[in-house]
Amino acid sequence: MSGEEDTELASKLGMCNREIVRRGALILFCDYVCQNLHDSEHLTWLVVNHIQDLISLSHEPPVQDFVSAVHRNSAASGLFLQAIQSRCESLSAPTTLRKTLQCLEGIHLSQSGAVLTLYVDKLLCTPFRVLARMVDTLACRRVEMLLAANFQSSVAQLPVEELNRVQEHLQSRGLAHR
């Protein structure tokens, strides 16, 4: 091996090591934040700045526990949803979309209107049938939750104007039959 190849290999190994440490640190920080949920500053920082990492690492038990803890709190769950809406541009990859849907599945009941809007506006039109069916199922569950809630709560989460916009969106894209 030449000196140039050694340098390139060392550089690649260094990048790999940094990525392993970065992921491990995020997983450990999720565990720390889970144990210190009263510290909203750390929770907010983690959700806002690392939402894509949280989604990609959502199969890790400490990250799963963190996401579950976030969804037990209405405000934190809303922050999680807003972070996905504003920071996740690449939801077109099937694996990323599936993991995102799994992270959104347990979202707080008070966020049903907002998550339903996200499902309809951004996720339901996926070309992947299995994922479209998954979005469809999750959206139907949220509609059922809104219908089961009292009228004032439902209207507060999904105003009539927004409901009409969602219906028009579904009809214009040919998705209303779902």
From TrEMBL:
Q: Under the cellular component aspect of Gene Ontology, which terms does the record hold? A: cytoplasm
Pfam families xref list: Htt_bridge
Kindly give the InterPro entries that the UniProt entry links to this protein.
Htt_bridge, Huntingtin_fam
- The molecule here is called Huntingtin
Q: Which organism is it from?
A: Myotis davidii (David's myotis)
Q: What is the lineage of its organism?
A: Eukaryota, Metazoa, Chordata, Craniata, Vertebrata
